[in-house]
Design brief:
Chain lengths: 445, 373, 456
């Protein structure tokens, strides 16, 4: 493998660039936290165009943005990408550490070569989103610990399979798509027994269970205009670890360590795009995220334990803007891309929240008769996202070669919260920046 | 084939297999962890439930319902329970505080005597399966001390059946180990001779031997394991009546007890009260398994050792049965390969420690009766 | 000096090589060991898996990725597999769970002049779960190869390359996920009424960490009647760790009693040994195909399956409180397994009963001898296993007259499998082993049904 890499480096400048990127792959495994498609988008083109693509995606990126876009594909293709993001977060003027992220993306698209009345009708695609280090990170902390629940969402190997259907024979320009986002959850048992001889014996079993959440999409092309509508069902990765004890000196109830480690809300997306003139594409979209349905990460430990406080998140509407300018000459195209997205926060400020009893009713302090309150330190702010990118396409006799690069800068607006950090006296203030970048290479034939 | 039929064939086939998409790694059924397998007899022993013994007016596992009777030791043979017991004194003196809380104070009970009880009849309400063992009831007197060498009480009964059906009851008393015989296990027992068959004078050990446990070996000889005060010793006999001690450690010149060294870091003060059986493992090995009482400051427990020649033993480092200060184990191999244990266990009544005989079994998954609904 | 006419194919080769390496990207490709037990693909299973030399459909994603480039056109396969086990220890059913699920195989070749590359996707998705790991307790005998090991998803994406008409190469990266879990519980547990007055809360940190290892394959088509294949799969060792902390109080007996409990357990979640498979396929006549495979599996590098436990319990019981707490708590230590390398022999035969432009009908049969790497369990461990004799039978129907809808054929395939595991005695060295001597053996029955499309 090392010899081949050296051989590539000797060939061309492009190979040097490729080899540098490939160096990431060969680095030792390390624990890392990767980007989420909901945070940063999926695919270099979408990620450099303000995370738009619902109305115009016409390659493997459509798997996430709008599966109906798969139906526009007429050539098979294979794509590979790398992306990375760094979390520069501040809490009360001091850095608040969140691990940087690296991930790979593998995408493929396969038009099914039926003939006759099924010709050019069905396209199958798949995308694999895989962190380089951690496949599934699930940090579900006590609610009173300062944390960034939206930015630090658990990552997971994301497998998206989709099918696009081109209905051009009946309604020219109309495409339908169905995708499935496969997510994993953990279900485990820990049985602790006390055997004779003062010996604890533990047996553990963990199962990784899959969950399939659909992505439904419709797209319509008419002349220079394209429209897209997509629905993502909520994605949940649940963890449940039952801790059971037998024959202990004291009888303990079953502990259920449960958490919703990964959550993407229901998302409804609408977008329109316009090919203003030859080579210019403008897109404008709106995303409705139903965060109000999020139950929170934590759940009761035992049936008689207090329920955690409600996070009280609210729905958000996120407008997005994307632009692409294409320059072509003799089989080679250069694309410049840019975009902007506004991501309002779904979280109220960190505060003293109503404490709940085991049934979810407000808990009353027996000493004062007043409702009990408990700190909840979820940190999040509005984000302004600026994106840039560049794409290169070269037509070969029997194939097309692609190379795209993207960069994003997320500006997390400063926010004043309603309570201090543990042990501090002044209310918390949070802010930050998230630079992200990456590239994708591909081949279509 | 027409295009329409081709499309139909394709779609039908795909639809057929769309049904197989149903599960897709989502079910997550929890199946049982691998269960414990044990053929070695080391335990741990599970104390039987009341619905298994048929003795319902007593704590679980108890062999005989007894409220005012002290139970010292016992064994099951030929469907009957042979045990040593004595009623508590109605106006018993205060307890000797130098005794451990689990020990019987002999001044608070009458002299021990040998008793016999018959098995409880199978009834339909407690389960429908014929089992070789149920609880026992209607105890009757078998033997009480009468010879000079016996002192005031008899204990540690052990029954064997001879080839012709006669029953021999070995027992311990103050002066050593004696034997009585009957025409059958249900018959009346008469002493054989007026002297012990094994005592200190015969080199049985530093103290008067007790707790006899006999095995008939393949060559017809009788081997008797017994408690000699300094450990467990072995003696052999041609006829079961005249015994000669066997050296447990040929590396020394003296007649030694069996080498059953305590595990490292163990705080045991000694061991005794042996009970032996011969078992055949699934691989065809014939082993002698020896169960015994281990004496610790915090209370006794039952452990075991195994041997291929009956003299050199490999000791199990754990506890086979450790609930409520068990002692005086008596074991029996059942037809299905299970090992049944009858042990005495701490049981106090009106402030007087009486102890009780309880049943336990290994493998613990074996049930003697169905659990009532 | 490289002229423009020569630069383009070399650049293309370089970039394709980069894509091939890129396809080795960690986490983008996945493979596990379940097909070692269940096989992959109805046709390959019917042939006993003796297909390393000439596999050319979706099953190449497991048996030999070089075969992807051998496919004529896009090949899609969808199927269902199932394996039932009737294994017992000392006459008692060990209740080994059935393994079954969905199979998907894709081979997508493309030609660029003289160069042919192919992309492949293989998926075996169990009904019940993506994966399962279980800790091993020495005193609980279990069928190590079938209790947990096959309950894992198999996902592979590979690249194949036809360099010459007679030489095919392929490769990919195998991906697996060990886990680290940390659980912390705080609060009060009421001893008298634990169900009603226990108030606890928890936090959880868990990581599934990706690891990767290589796979390479080659096929050499020496002639129309002889093919040779070679596949190498690297090894992977996954350690799963669990750390649990309880920091709280026991209540209900007067003043709260502080409790401090700590458990750390590090277990070997999976060991997939490196393997080298050599296969030969012969076609003595146009209707008859014979195959033989030999696979060396490096089991001797297997680490201990017993977790290393550290347990600590501190309870400050006040005087006068009747609460018995053990004063000595012992964890477990790793125990070496003593596995030995094995050589798996596979034989397969296929006969074309009918072969026309309208349809084709093939009959298939095979035999596999899979020796066990586990020695007789004479020590404290109890990982039960036996040699495996597998007999397979199958058939395939190809419908060809489907144009214009399908320029190719529709395949319907099925296979049956019967595996015999002869009873094996495990005699313990220790006479007082907690488990004792025992015998283990049994049989397994499996089937695989598939439907596929092969476009020209």
């Amino acid at each position: 493998m090392g010899t081949l890499r050296a051989s590539i480096e000797a060939k061309t400048c492009r190979s040097l660039l490729l080899a540098w990127s490939l160096g990431w792959i060969l680095l030792p495994t390390s624990v890392a936290e990767a980007t989420s498609p909901d945070l940063f988008g999926f695919g270099s083109r979408s990620m450099s165009m303000g995370m738009t693509g619902v109305s115009f995606a016409d390659d493997y990126e459509a798997l996430y943005s709008n599966p109906a876009g798969l139906a526009r594909i007429r050539e098979s293709g294979l794509f590979l990408g790398l992306s990375a993001a760094s979390f520069e977060l501040e809490l009360d003027g001091s850095p608040h550490y969140l691990e940087a992220a690296r991930a790979t993306t593998l995408g493929f698209q396969l038009p099914i070569p039926f003939g006759g009345s099924l010709r050019d009708m069905l396209v199958f695609g798949g995308g694999f989103y895989t962190p380089l280090g951690v496949v599934l990170r699930s940090d579900v902390l006590f609610a009173d610990e300062a944390q960034w629940p939206i930015l630090a969402r658990a990552q997971s190997v994301s497998i998206i399979l989709g099918l696009g259907v081109d209905l051009h024979r009946w309604i020219p320009g109309l495409h339908l798509g169905l995708g499935v986002n496969a997510m994993a959850g953990v279900h485990g048992r820990l049985l602790v027994e006390f055997e004779d001889g003062n010996r604890f014996v533990s047996q553990t079993e963990t199962q990784l269970l899959s969950r399939f959440d659909p992505i439904l999409g419709v797209a319509y092309d008419r002349g220079d205009l394209s429209f897209g509508l997509t629905y993502h069902r909520e994605v949940r990765s649940e963890i449940r670890l039952d801790v059971q004890t037998e024959s202990l000196p004291v009888e303990l109830p079953t502990f259920a360590i449960t958490a919703v480690a990964q959550y993407d809300p229901h998302i409804l997306s609408a977008e329109a795009s316009w090919r203003a003139r030859a080579g210019t594409l403008l897109s404008l979209g709106l995303h409705w995220r139903m965060w109000s349905l999020w139950p929170g990460m934590l759940e009761q430990t035992t049936a008689s334990s207090y329920q955690p406080p409600s996070p009280a998140f609210h729905d958000t509407f996120s407008p997005r803007l994307g632009v692409e300018q294409t320059f072509s000459r003799r089989g080679t195209s250069l694309r410049l891309r840019g975009g902007y997205a506004y991501e309002p926060t779904a979280a109220p400020p960190a505060r003293m929240a109503q404490a709940l009893d085991s049934r979810g009713e407000p808990r009353i302090d027996p000493a004062t008769g007043e409702p009990s309150r408990t700190p909840i330190r979820y940190l999040d702010s509005d984000r302004h996202v600026l994106t840039l990118g560049i794409g290169f396409e070269h037509r070969l006799p029997e194939a097309r070669l692609f190379l795209d690069a993207h960069a994003q800068l997320h500006w997390i607006v400063a926010r004043d919260h309603e309570l201090p950090a543990a042990g501090a006296t002044t209310n918390m203030q949070s802010r930050g920046l998230i630079p992200a970048f990456g590239w994708t290479g591909g081949l279509e034939w | 084939m027409s295009a329409a039929r081709a499309r139909g064939a394709i779609l039908a086939s795909l639809l057929l297999f769309a049904l197989s998409l149903g599960a897709c790694a989502m079910l997550g059924d929890e199946t049982r962890f691998p269960f414990r397998v044990t053929t070695s007899g080391v335990g741990p022993f599970r104390q039987l439930e009341s619905y298994e013994t048929g003795v319902t007016l007593a704590p679980k596992g108890q062999a005989v319902a007894s409220r005012s009777v002290a139970m010292q030791s016992g064994m099951v043979a030929e469907g009957q329970l042979f045990f040593a017991a004595a009623p508590m004194l109605m106006d018993a003196p205060p307890r000797d505080e130098s005794l451990a809380e689990w020990e019987i104070d002999p001044l608070q009970i009458e002299p021990l005597r040998l008793m016999r009880a018959r098995a409880i009849e199978q009834t339909g309400t407690l389960g429908g399966r014929t089992v070789p063992l149920r609880g026992f009831q209607e105890p009757t007197l078998l033997l009480e001390a009468s010879e000079a060498w016996e002192g005031s009480e008899l204990f540690d009964p052990h029954l064997v059946i001879l080839d012709d059906g006669r029953a021999r009851l070995y027992y311990a008393a103050a002066g050593g180990i004696g034997v009585a015989e009957a025409s059958s296990a249900e018959g009346a027992f008469s002493r054989i001779g007026s002297e012990p068959i094994l005592d200190q004078a015969q080199g049985a050990g530093p103290e008067s031997p007790r707790s006899p446990s006999l095995l008939r070996m393949s060559d017809g000889r009788w081997w008797m394991y017994y408690d000699a005060g300094d450990g467990i010793r072995l003696a052999s006999s041609e006829d079961g009546l005249r015994f000669a001690p066997i050296d447990g450690d040929e590396t020394t010149a003296e007649l030694d007890p069996l080498r059953l060294e305590a595990p490292a870091e163990s705080l045991e003060r000694g061991l005794g009260m042996p009970s032996a059986l011969v078992a055949e493992t699934p691989s065809g090995r014939r082993l002698i398994r020896l169960y015994f009482e281990v004496r610790l400051d915090e209370g006794p427990l039952v452990s075991m050792a195994a041997s291929e020649d009956g003299v050199h033993f490999e000791r199990y480092e754990g506890a086979s049965f450790a609930i409520d200060a068990p002692g005086a184990p008596r074991v029996q191999l059942l037809e299905g390969g299970q090992t049944l244990l009858l042990a005495s266990q701490a049981r106090a009544q009106l402030g007087i420690q009486l102890r009780a005989l309880v049943f336990a079994v290994t493998p613990s998954a074996h049930l003697f009766a169905d659990e009532p609904e | 000096m490289v002229g423009p006419g020569m630069a383009r194919p070399r650049v293309l080769l370089a970039l394709l090589g980069g894509l091939l390496l890129g396809s080795l990207a960690p986490g983008s490709l996945a493979r596990a060991t379940p097909p070692d037990t269940t096989g992959f693909g109805a046709r390959a299973n019917a042939l006993g898996g003796a297909v390393t030399a000439d596999v050319d459909d979706g099953a190449a994603n497991y048996f030999n990725p070089a075969g992807l480039a051998r496919a004529e056109g896009l090949t899609l396969g969808l199927g269902y597999f199932s394996l039932h086990s009737r294994l017992s220890i000392e006459g008692s059913d060990s209740e080994v769970e059935r393994i079954g699920g969905l199979e998907l195989g894709v081979a997508a070749p493309a030609s660029f002049g003289w160069l042919k590359i192919a992309f492949g996707l293989g998926l075996q998705l169990p009904d019940q779960r993506l994966s399962r790991t279980r800790s091993a307790v020495p005193e609980r005998p279990r069928w190590e190869m079938y209790d947990t090991r096959p309950h894992r998803v198999f996902l592979a994406a590979n690249l194949g390359l036809r360099l010459f008409d007679w030489l095919y190469l392929g490769g990919g990266i195998i991906f697996q996920s060990p886990s680290q879990m940390y659980v912390e519980i705080r609060g009060d547990a009421d001893i008298v009424s634990p169900e009603r007055r226990t108030h606890l809360e928890h936090q959880f940190k868990g990581d599934l960490i990706s690891q990767r290892y290589p796979i390479f394959g080659a096929q050499l088509r020496a002639s129309d009647w002889l093919s040779v294949g070679l596949t190498y799969r690297g090894s992977v060792t996954l350690d799963n760790g669990v750390q649990a902390i309880i920091d709280g109080h026991f209540t209900g007996l007067g003043d709260p009693i502080p409790v401090d409990f700590y458990l750390q357990s590090l277990a070997l979640g999976l060991f997939a040994p490196q393997q080298l498979a050599l296969g030969i396929a012969l076609r003595p006549s146009p209707r008859l195909r014979l195959g033989v495979d030999l696979t060396w599996i490096d089991w001797s590098g297997h680490g201990s399956l017993i977790s290393r436990d550290e347990v600590r319990l501190d309870v400050a019981v006040p005087p006068g409180v009747d609460l018995s707490i053990p004063d000595r708590i012992v964890g477990r230590s790793a125990i070496p397994l003593g596995l030995s390398d094995t050589l798996v022999t596979r034989l397969g035969a296929e006969y074309a009963l009918h072969d026309s432009e309208v349809y084709g009908l093939d009959l298939r049969g095979g035999y596999v001898y899979q020796p066990t790497p586990f020695p007789a369990q004479t020590g404290i461990t109890n990982f039960v296993d036996s040699d495996r004799h597998i007999f397979t039978l199958g058939a395939g129907l190809a419908l060809r007259d489907l144009e214009p809808t399908v320029a190719g054929e529709l395949r319907l395939e099925g296979s049956l499998m019967l595996a015999l595991l002869p009873e094996r005695m495990h005699q313990k060295r220790s006479l007082v082993d907690p488990v004792g001597d025992y015998r283990g053996g049994g049989w397994q029955f499996g089937f695989n049904l598939g439907v596929g499309l092969a476009f020209r």
